[in-house]
């Protein structure tokens, strides 16, 4: 304790001066350590051959170069990185890292450099963690694919394009799944499918375009996008099938829904992405089941009508009803129906054969909307099964009927079935598929043999 204020002030001044001198000497010492030390002067030699050795010893001096880390921006770099990360200035942080990497690019890895690198690497890990969090679904779902662009681009600049790709696609998968779940299932199935296709394929298209922008220089990431697209398509088909096929919608509704999905899928060709084969592969099982189920319905309905067959002409009662039937048969492809109409409102055909014709042609038209190569045999076998029910019924009736007048009427129906309906089915199938069906040709030829020998017992009822 000083005796008075004056002595106290003098002591404080001395103390401050000592601190300043010590800080100055410490700074000079650090500067001297950072500066390259001159090599000791070798003693003069009179040996002329030592000159070459001296030149060789001077060459590795570059490796002993000491990196100048006393620059102000380098000294403050760790703290500046902390500030950039805290303020979410990701671009500024990566710019600082690029500047440091450029400065240290050709410099030797001395101990001070290693220590600086360790400090910077810790900040890089922190920055990466923040960018990863920015790409989490909780952070950037609402802004669409572009909301991820900032974080993705900085991760790519940090040399982590693979991680950026993985996180971007995970983010978009969660966004698509959320959008599908938020769709309300209300009204007609076709209306819901229109909404589902719009939401899904628009998201897929936007994601593909954003991916192409963000990862334009990273060709290795494109295979990951294709895998992601296939996985997303499976998620879409699950929602699609649950609403269309699991709810046992009619074949016509299913055909319209599949048509809508195919049309939306073609939009992806705008960016050179064709996923049609994927949607075919994922839907083939459900469409097979729908075709076979509807085939069974037609067969049961045909058998039921056959069991009640009276082989009588149809009386439509009114010209309007006859005109409507003419239009229906014309839409089925039957152009010669007028030759089977009689006076007034009579039709010289059985109700069973007419109903079979309309139902079979309707099945074929809807099935062709669902058609793709993987379904060829399923559709063909279903048609053959359906036709056989009618063919065998007519053949059986011809062999069993004893009344000559009624037998003549059965033959007229058989003629309509064999010479008009079967060729129309065969022609329409070939138009829709693009190639003839030998099984249908063989069926028609076998039916012709039955007509030649109506007493044959080879047909099975």
TrEMBL record:
Coiled coil: none annotated. Belongs to the EXO84 family. Residues 49-65 have a biased composition (Acidic residues). The gene is Exoc8. Transmembrane segments: none annotated. Its main location: cytoplasm. Keywords: Exocytosis, Protein transport, Transport. This is EXOC8 protein. Gene3D superfamilies: Exo84p, C-terminal helical domain (1.20.58.1220), Exo84p, N-terminal helical domain (1.20.58.1210). GO terms for cellular component: exocyst; perinuclear region of cytoplasm. GO terms for biological process: exocytosis; Golgi to plasma membrane transport; protein transport.
């Amino acid at each position: 304790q000083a005796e008075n204020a004056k002595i106290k002030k003098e002591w404080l001044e001395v103390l401050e001066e000592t601190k300043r001198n010590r800080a100055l000497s410490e700074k000079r010492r650090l500067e001297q350590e950072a500066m390259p030390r001159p090599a000791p002067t070798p003693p003069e030699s009179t040996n002329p051959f030592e000159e070459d050795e001296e030149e060789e010893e001077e060459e590795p001096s570059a490796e002993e170069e000491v990196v100048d880390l006393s620059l102000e921006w380098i000294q403050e770099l760790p703290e500046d990185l902390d500030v950039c990360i805290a303020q979410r200035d990701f671009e500024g942080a990566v710019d600082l890292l690029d500047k440091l990497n450029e400065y240290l690019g050709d410099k030797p890895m001395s101990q001070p450099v290693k220590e600086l690198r360790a400090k910077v690497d810790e900040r890089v890990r922190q920055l990466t963690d923040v960018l990863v969090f920015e790409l989490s679904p909780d952070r950037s779902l609402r802004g669409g694919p572009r909301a991820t662009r900032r974080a993705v681009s900085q991760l790519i600049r940090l040399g982590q394009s693979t991680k950026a790709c993985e996180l971007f696609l995970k983010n978009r998968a969660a966004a698509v799944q959320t959008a599908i779940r938020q769709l309300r299932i209300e009204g007609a199935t076709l209306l819901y499918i229109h909404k589902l296709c719009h939401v899904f394929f628009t998201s897929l298209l936007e994601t593909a375009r954003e991916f192409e922008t963000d990862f334009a220089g990273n060709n290795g990431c494109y295979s990951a996008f294709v895998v992601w697209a296939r996985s997303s398509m499976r998620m879409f088909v699950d929602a699609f099938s649950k609403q269309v096929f699991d709810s046992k919608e009619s074949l016509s509704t299913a055909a319209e829904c599949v048509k809508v999905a195919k049309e939306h899928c073609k939009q992806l060709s705008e960016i050179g992405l064709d996923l049609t084969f994927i949607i075919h592969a994922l839907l083939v099982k459900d469409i097979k089941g729908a075709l076979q189920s509807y085939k069974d319905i037609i067969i049961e309905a045909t058998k039921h009508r056959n069991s009640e067959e009276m082989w009588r002409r149809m009386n439509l009662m009114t010209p309007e009803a006859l005109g409507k039937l003419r239009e229906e048969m014309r839409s089925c492809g039957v152009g010669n129906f007028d030759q089977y109409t009689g006076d007034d409102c009579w039709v010289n055909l059985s109700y069973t054969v007419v109903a079979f014709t309309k139902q079979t042609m309707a099945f074929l038209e809807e099935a062709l909307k669902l058609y793709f190569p993987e379904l060829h045999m399923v559709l063909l076998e279903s048609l053959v099964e359906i036709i056989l029910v009618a063919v065998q019924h007519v053949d059986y009736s011809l062999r069993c009927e004893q009344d000559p007048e009624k037998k003549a009427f059965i033959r007229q129906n058989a003629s309509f079935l064999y010479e008009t309906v079967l060729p129309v089915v065969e022609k329409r199938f070939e138009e829709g598929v693009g190639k003839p069906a030998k099984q249908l040709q063989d069926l028609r030829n076998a039916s012709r043999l039955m007509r030649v020998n109506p007493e044959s017992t080879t047909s099975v009822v």
